[in-house]
Write a structure and sequence with these properties.
With 140 residues, the protein is α+β, with helices and mostly antiparallel strands. 23% of the residues lie in helices and 40% in strands. It contains three helices and six strands. Strands 1-2-3-4-6-5 form a six-stranded mixed β-sheet, covered by helices on one side. A hairpin with a 3-residue loop joins strand 5 (114-125) and strand 6 (129-139).
Amino acid sequence: MTTGDTFPYDPAWSSEQARSVWVQPLPSHTVVACDDSRILGTAHMGRNRPGAGAHVATASFMVARDARGQGVGRTLSEYALSWSREQGFAAIQFNAVVESNEVAVRLYQALGFNVIGTVPQAFKHPTLGLVGLHVMHRFL
């Protein structure tokens, strides 16, 4: 999160601020992928919207820089899909996938997600400038 190039969170947040946003109250679900005491990545998932939108899940993922390319993102994504199905969600939607995060976009597409729209220039990338945020969706 500290590089600010793949997530729309403020890289200047303290650990406490980041935790308060990332670890959401029940019925949301947060997991951490570890190798012994080394944290490889994390995911949180839950309903995308309350009320009439509560049948659609959402999820977000972070993978440690030194763990990228090792299947951690795929494992966390597959877990989120499985958890969402078990919870009875009909679909899952990602609201803000940075379009320049090509590795994540390819992974989600390989897992059956489609880009259903892109909000132009909605993300201020630290080196590329303004880039779009994809909304991605798939039925469960």
